[in-house]
Automatic annotation (TrEMBL):
Protein name: Prepilin-type N-terminal cleavage/methylation domain-containing protein
PROSITE patterns: PROKAR_NTER_METHYL
UniProt keyword list: Membrane, Transmembrane, Transmembrane helix
Transmembrane segments: 6-30
């Protein structure tokens, strides 16, 4: 019996079929990244909401839910404000909810796991700013966390947390939380 291999026509047909399958399947696999980013943003939004609510519960127990500001104790202010301690450290609060940017203690982002303490090794972009048109790392009562917002601050793939009594939320004693996933 003589060994028999594939003919050239059979090989071409197989290559064409594999090419058609690759062209039709590739867009579906590429779209999985968008779905993953949307799910991550939705999950982060829920985590931030839960962290804020648990912090508020802790503030109510300590009697600090109506305080316009609760800061982490230092040598100079130890008796000025009530302090709220957790197993992670002291919370800095406004009206019982975590601050966006905490100078001495813990803020809202310290209560959720974004990968690294200084966010440098994280896949997330962190923007402290009172507007959606820029992204800087200065002290702000607003923080957005998302994908691609450091390079394109107006990109709508983020969670936005605004502390009570802060810029864009000055008269409120409750935090504001939104998330956008239009451009993930």
């Amino acid at each position: 019996m003589r060994p028999r291999g594939f003919t050239l026509i059979e090989l071409v047909i197989v290559i064409v079929i594999l090419g058609v399958l690759a062209v039709t399947a590739a867009p579906r696999f590429l779209d999985l990244q968008k779905d993953a980013r949307i799910s991550a943003v939705n999950g982060l939004s829920a985590a931030i909401n839960d962290a804020a609510m648990l912090s508020y519960s802790k503030a109510v127990i300590a009697g600090a839910e109506n305080s316009p500001r609760v800061v982490a104790p230092t040598d100079s202010n130890a008796d000025t404000y009530p302090s709220i301690e957790t197993n992670l450290g002291y919370l800095e609060l406004k009206y019982g909810y975590p601050e966006s940017y905490a100078e001495n203690g813990l803020g809202i982002l310290d209560l959720v796991d974004l990968g690294n303490d200084d966010f440098s090794d994280s896949d997330w972009d962190v923007c402290f700013s009172s507007t959606l048109s820029n992204c800087n790392s200065s002290n702000s009562s607003n923080v957005r966390v998302g994908f691609g917002i450091a390079d394109t601050p107006t990109k709508r793939c983020y969670v936005h947390y605004i502390e009570p009594g802060g810029t864009n939320n000055p008269s409120e004693t409750n935090f504001y939380l939104e998330h956008a996933t239009d451009e993930c």
